[in-house]
Amino acid sequence: MTETHATISPGAPVFPAGRYGRRRAAGGKRRRTLLAALALLALAATLTVISVRLYRQYGDPVYDAQVITYTDITDKQVLVDFRVTVPPGGSAVCVLRARDRAGAEVAREQVTVTADAGDRHVTTRHRLTTTARPFIGEVLRCQAPS
Known about the structure:
With 146 residues, this protein is an alpha+beta fold.
């Protein structure tokens, strides 16, 4: 049977039979879209797992320090009162420093603080011995003891 002008849909190309290979099925584009969506979903899940793992390893918010006050400033010392949030009954290693008016570091020390059993907050006072007159005392960071 030959096709006539009336049996061909308008705008559809006519190819000679067997000349250009097998024609693609109509569902091929749908399959590619589904595979792309699944690949994107797998990538998002993988990135989420990696993010959570890195956050637990490096972004632990359990150790939080706040300076309450720094007092007793003399030419050779500053007294720093600070509060640390730790896991219940746990401890933390905190890095304290003092700076002069120009911002130069004049003292730095590591201090270990330990909470009482069941407590999550430790309030402590530490005296930093400085090499020059300090202007401010601060807690740089607190982390789990190694």
